[in-house]
Amino acid sequence: MQTPSSPSSERSPALPHPGAARYSDLPQFPSKAPLPFRRTIRRHELHQIVPLAETTIYEMEQRGEFPLRFRLTPRCVVWDLEEVEAWIESRKQDSRSAKLRTPIGPDVRQRQYRPVR
After folding, report:
1. CB-based contacts of 50: which residues, under 8 Å, 6+ apart?
2. How far, in Å, CA of 27 to CA of 6, rounded?
3. pTM above 0.85, yes or no
4. Helix, strand, coil % (nearest 5) of the chain?
């Protein structure tokens, strides 16, 4: 007769602690949603997660660089939280792998000097 295995033997390996070598390999957001449904977020929640201006988010949506909003009702606009988290994770990975190269400031070689009166 077989005895049921103990729950501790079926556990997944322990997660590494912050500062450990394998900790930086973990994704910021879990790959599976803990809830059985997809969560949507409204504008004020989006601004708590993504600290960008409203116009910046809108322009990035138009260029296809940010998850698109959609309407639940004529007056209620929401974003899919899973898409926003995936976007943040991709930006994080791009930044760490140095693929995302943005200039630190404006190109000073293009300055136009005006004479002082």
Report:
1. 57, 84, 88
2. 29
3. no
4. 35, 10, 55
